[in-house]
Design goal:
Strand content: 5-15%
Helix content: 25-40%
Number of strands: 7
Number of helices: 10
Radius of gyration: 19 Å
Oligomer: single chain
Distance between the termini: 48 Å
Largest sheet: 5 strands, mixed
Amino acid sequence: MDFIKDLKLEKPIVFFDTETTGLDISSDRIISLSVFKFNVDGSREHKQVLINPTIPIKKEAYDVHGISDKDVENCPTFQKLAKSMYTFFEGCDVGGYNNSFFDNQLLQEEFARCGYDYPSPESVQSIDVCTIFKKFEKRDLSTAVKFYCGKEMEDAHNAEADNNATIEVFGAQLNKYEELKGKTVKELSDFCKQDNRVDWAGRIIRDENGDYVWNFGASKGQKIKDNKGFGEWILNKDFPESFKTLIRKILAELD
């Protein structure tokens, strides 16, 4: 993976991809996780695991990735892997394909169920290769592989293949666009940002004064410090646990 050699690293970065039981952040689980870790000293580490989600895999998800309940029934649960995975991820920035809109949220939710807060939008930089692609060329991973790498992608929707393809596309993007050359991870992360969001789903953002602002529902546009009651309401409803953890943290900070 020499195509990543020109990336300026101030701390390690992990590119990861997930396959899941479905698309609901609150209730669905990771069943396959591929991780490539790029260290500041140039060394690299890799993990690829199948995970027992403890819940059935939805048919529409199986139709995409082909992983069945039987394939993962004897695999470790995320709970059993959480400590070692958190140690592997801790202190790293993240990268992926469309990760800022899905994979980051789902991984954070899995870790939250096990007592870990990672990856938080305010504590890590996130490079979304899909966002870079859309900003420059305005589409899916297979198309990106063909466009940037000049070849057809094989085994799409396999976490390992998707992650390898994402890293290769990112390397090609660094080489293709002068605007990206020599950038740090933070600069690339800023380029990928959609807005000043505090959580991956963008339910909370910061305004020009740095204040927390509700960005959804009936309270959209209101500062949290002026409407803490909406946060209390959220804590009693069916929202992702990682989001509730963030709400508790913000409310405690504002008290």
